[in-house]
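Progress note, project year one: complex with pyridoxal-5'-phosphate.
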Amino acid sequence: MNEDLLQETLAAIKSDMTKEAASLFVDLIIDYLTSDKEKVCTSLAAEEIASRFNKPLPREGQPLTDVIEKIAQDILPDVNRLIHPMYMAVPVAPPLPATVWMESLIGALNQSTRVFCMSPTGTPVEMHLIRWLAEKVGFGENAGGTFTSGGTEANFTALLAARSAVLPDSWQEGVGAEAPVVLCAENAHYTIFRAVAQLGLGKRRAITIPSRNSQMDTDVLAARLRELAQTNTKVMAVVATAGGCGTGAFDDLSTIGKLCSAYGVWFHVDGAHGASALLSKKHSYRLRGIEQADSVVWDPHKMMLMPLSASVLLVKNEQYLENAFASSEENKGNKREKWNQYTRSFMASRRADALKVWVALQRYGTDGLGVLYEHLCHLTEILYETIETRNDFEALHRPECNILCFRYIGNFSIDEPMLDTLNRKIYNHYNHSGLGFIAATPIRGIVALRVTIMNPLTQVEHLQTLLEGLVNTAQKLLTTEDLY
Ligand SMILES: Cc1ncc(COP(=O)(O)O)c(C=O)c1O
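Model obtained:
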């Protein structure tokens, strides 16, 4: 062992435990949080950025000031600035500041919530939040759940729980040749379809129910459930979406819940985006019927504005969640495991993400987070109403939350194929300019611009700036580019 290098490294560790060291990082964060002058997103290609990092990693540590300089030079200039009020791209949050600081503390504490003895305060906080969220959903005494790394893992775990309910022997025996089917809305998140394949059912057993007015068509669902019952085909779950990532639409949970109950089918609600509407008196009606669900995904890292990651799966009956991770025989009467979340989780080592959610609720309040949800939706509604008063844009739906799809239509003399090309180019050129950051998505076969307003510091004037920026981009394209 190189004794000198060991001593140097130990000295570096000690000196990094000081306020001086911390303040170097804090200054970077404050600069990032308070500057809205920078570009919202980079115009550089992946290869250009990657070339910056094509150097051998140092064999010996560098002074912290040099490392900070590298971060300032190589990392920060080309990040997506989610904190910028013109950031409106995807449902990833500019995190609430108290949670940014709490992230450092979570890292410092590094409590693994796998078992209680490794996280004696993190685990009870996780359980407390699960109970609170489950009450918001309307679940009773037997409810439980788990924090996950994201909506993807939460949806996967929900379907694992459904599998344990529908095929209790699957832990030992697998799903067999006659695997059950899963019925999903057309607008279900792509990870649902993946989960069906990953669970060993085979992707073709994910049956898509078409949409009517962006909602799962419940008449078609009723007909499919009837047909499947007549042919004795096992249904593992019906998956509804509350706040789809395309247009932010909410399925009719009441009707879907009743159908699931009539056919004795597991009812899963992917509320990764929209379950936070339960915090708002004004918007909670969109989730009417959610209490009928057997499982619900709710991502605080989306509309509760947490840093990645904080996602939650809630189940009406915790036993099914436990049976997703061991056979029911193994789980029987296993009271000792009550506080050990690994029995309900895909993960072994688990971050104490619940701590930052708890801190946000302490700092901003449950109603405070509800009002932020309303504010983001209100801004989106204003954008929609503004577009409705103009001739040069077309809104493609009325917003149900903080997501709006629309397109530039100019002076009506542009034909449909050209409108698609134009809007695709507007999206690319506008984002490339760094003036703002939006998304594009196909909707009903046409290219739409999509805005997801995630930043509570975005104001009405920024919505005007957005439309002006898009018009300028369009006009430049119409005069300089061949769009055919
Ligand atoms: C409705 C919905 N479900 C699931 C997911 C996946 O969540 P995550 O990205 O946290 O894994 C998303 C992501 O945007 C989503 O919008």
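Residues 91, 150-152, 155, 189, 191, 241, 244-245, 270, 272-273, 299, 311 surround pyridoxal-5'-phosphate (CB under 6 Å).
The longest strand covers residues 235-241.
No further modelling is planned for this target in the current period.
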